[in-house]
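Data availability (excerpt). All sequences and predicted token strings are deposited with the supplementary files. A representative entry, 2-succinyl-5-enolpyruvyl-6-hydroxy-3-cyclohexene-1-carboxylate synthase, is shown inline so that the format can be inspected without opening the archive.
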Amino acid sequence: MLRSDPPSFQIADVIVQTLVALGVRHFCICPGSRSTPLVLNIWRDASASHTVHHDERSAAFQALGRSLTTGGASAVVTTSGTAVAELLPATVEASQSNVPLVLLTADRPARLRGTGSNQTILQPGIFGPYVRAELDVPAIVSDHGEWQRELSDQITLLVQSAAGPRPGPVHLNAQFDKPFEPAELTRRATAACPMNESPEAHAHMDLSDEVRSTLVQSSRGVIVVGPNRIGPPMLDAVHALSVSTAMPIVADPLSGCRFPVGTRCNVVSHGDALLQAGLLQNLRPDLIVRFGSLPVSTRLIAWWSANLSTGGTHIYVNNTSEVHDDTNAITEYVAGDPVSFCHEAGKLQHPVVSRQGWLSRWQELNALAERTVRMCSAASPRWDLGTVRTLIERLGANTILVAGNSLPIRLLDSAGIGLRDGVILGNRGASGIDGLLATALGVAGATSKQVVLLIGDVSMLHDVGSLAEVRRQNVTNLCVVVLNNDGGRIFERLPVTDLADVAEQLFVAPHGLDFAGLASAFGLDHRLVSELSSLDVALSDAIDGPPTSILEVRTSAADDLAWERHYIDLLRHAGAS
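Structure token line:
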């Protein structure tokens, strides 16, 4: 940076250098005039990678996907005006999911706010409570020589807010006055320090006497692990706690705790199906030990709430100061590291022998559900749940599966199996159907692993503009599996479907589209699957074939619902016999 450079360029130089030095590795850039100083400084910094996007909403979700994959903050860069407002959906999701994200927005000088000046809105505060912190940088360079260090210190505090203790998005709004361009533009290197790469320390935790007593005296305890971005230390810790306490682990599909059939046998992965079949009515817990966010299954939440309403203990362990409890069921909140909690709780003298019958019953019921769903999958040529199970069984090690919301995530929950050494990610903070394809693109851009997106047809149509990014960014490790049941068929599982005259028109809203023409328009490979028997070959061709494929699985909503009811009926009768 030269003293002769315009103030806007000098300010942007400090911003970018500081962000890169703090470990912000990637910038998703949306072209615009007012953001010129930022974009030029990102380009000339050899330590910063970037991608260019036409759509700010999509770019924000791609930055979210990158952060979700790496654990460190990525940044999205926009010009002023409504471009900034386009970032709100991804910001809400990042906030609710505790994903670090830097919203780097260019702005007109403050003197133009409220004057009717073109492309000028009130950008500070636009994201409300959904950012952990924000900084509005004025367009003026101070006369004293310490302004660069002071600005860098402010940015450092901002990025630290994104990293934790409650990770999430932060907003850096930079006002720029013309001119934007330097007289000379040369590349440079900034020494970047790693972010969130040091081994996490798991300090000793002192459990209260009440918690210790409850853990030991319980005779019917259950460990529940909800959506949680956890690594091997937490997986091992939860499993060890289950073994030392003889408590089953009821695992959400996004918990990271589900494993392929036959491994880690204390894991109960068919909880929702067992609840639908009424087979958990006589299994009344006196203790719930819970980690992570609320699970996908609302039946599971209702089950523990009903059973603990007349007595029992619900221990919730979380290190982000957040309490995920929409039924006010928690009786003991433990603020601290879940791994440390598992270690300390596992050291207690638990009555393992007397609890063995309780654990065995859970294992028997889960095995029964697995046999039943496997039998139904083999018998049905067109069942969405069978499709999802085939998909999971086909995916190899080192695969990342991105789960769409609405019906796909519920099918994953009901599938009851996990990936072999793989990871399942999803946007369950606010559980919206927007930006799912863009999120998967961000995930694919941040890893060399194979990424598979399981998405519904309406969600796909909602984010269709993100398909343009596939070829622009040369994405070669993404396969998109679209479950096309012609509309929002999840509503057929809700009470509104009883209003037959309006449900189809106002809620299901069939679109009658296929995705072959859409794939062709964006230069992507397309494959159509109409029967479960041909899915495995089609998956192999799609994953091992062209760089990015759209695999459209045409399903029948009526057949799917009939088979689901048949499965639950079979499970109910088998459990009663």
